Amino acid sequence: MPVNDKNKKAFSYSCVDRSGRKFIYKNFNKSCSYKTNFSGTIFDGTSFIGTKFKFCSFYEAQIRSCLLNGTLFRKCNLTNALFEDSIISSSVFKECKIKNCKFYNCKIVCTSGLSKIISKRNLKNTEILTAFPSSNNYSKELLKAFDKLRNNRFIKNSSVLFQKRDAINTLSVDILVSEFGENFLVNNLSSLNHISCDFHTLSYIKKILYKKQKNDTINELGSIATQGSIS
Q1: What are phi and psi of 10, to 5 degrees?
Q2: Which domain of life is it from (predicted)?
Q3: Lower CB density within 10 Å: C or N end of the chain?
Q4: Which of 159, 163, 68 has the alpha carbon at shortest distance from 106?
């Protein structure tokens, strides 16, 4: 049974109470939940691709470092919910209660109507786009570096860096460039080819790159210290 089919069954809920739970690094892809209470629940590093929530409560829920792609919230209660450090694309918030629902450090793309129902004061460091960034915004060297990651099946299956038909997810590229810079990515993206386990969000890739960046800084400082002692 494909992984997504297993998760579809495992994380599909109907008329149950899942309030106050913690779902960390989970895969809710293609699952469907109905009249379920997720109030006060924390979702961290979790993927919601093609996920459907109908008549569910997310009162004061926290959705952190998550990927929402093609996600449907139909008549859900999102009052006081928090979306933080998350990517939201091609998703639908239909007839939801959304009072004081906050979006912090999020990227929202192709999610029509959300900007009309969310107060600007509840959007902090959050960018709402009507289309994915153009690949022309990036150097050929950077795009080639991403292309070389296609052969890693864990990266490809995650849908984090590549979309349907193998198109590069330029929204993810944009986020990585803003945090690490093009030069660092060109020189270090190849380290991602060592990924050998399933993952579901961009936060996993960012942790690997941050670790690489930290190690490079330590090595550089060590080299400077050595040169200073020799001189």
Answers
A1: -70, -35
A2: Bacteria
A3: C
A4: 68
Look at residue 182 and give its three-state secondary structure.
helix
Amino acid 155 reads I
**204, amino acid identity:** Y
Domains plus CATH for the chain? 3-129 (2.160.20.80), 135-226 (no CATH)
Please tell me the pTM assigned to this model.
0.85
**Residue keyed to tokens 């090595």:** 219
* Cα atoms in the Cβ-side hemisphere of radius 13 Å centred on 130: 1
> pLDDT tens, 134-170?
999 999 999 999 999 999 999 999 989 998 777 899 9
Tell me the per-residue pLDDT of 51-76, one tens digit each, with 9 for 90 and over.
999 999 999 999 999 999 999 999 99
